[in-house]
Amino acid sequence: MLQLGDRAPAFTLYDQNRQKWRLADQRNFRVALFFYPKANTSGCTEQATGLSDLLPEIRDVVVVGISADSPDKQAAWDEKNRLGFPLLSDQDHKVARKYGVFGPKKLYGREYEGITRSLFLISPSGRVEGAWVKVSPKATPVELLAALEEIHE
Asked: CA nearest 122: which of 95, 102, 90, 91?
């Protein structure tokens, strides 16, 4: 599991427009990286739209979401909700594993492997400034805003 101060694992993934998106290209920007289990589900939509609603307040932060969904599914979800930020496709779970947010889960007594809803705040120098694993959809934007306010004090 990543700890505060750790270097955020580098990665390159395709977004909903099939464009390459590289964490390394975000140097000099703060990045709010959130992982979600499945596009176009109620909890994930609540999480993503909550972050989208924050965009006017956090203009200096790059918001980006990651799930195992295909770029086409991400694009349809983005079009439906007008999210306004990159949605990255991690179909082989390599990035989720690097961030420690892919593994065993339980739902209604059924065990399976999947992405754990999480949020990471990455500094302009590429270090983990905040990490919220198993964060609720509603708490994701609240936690991000509180962390950013603390940093700017």
From this structure: 95
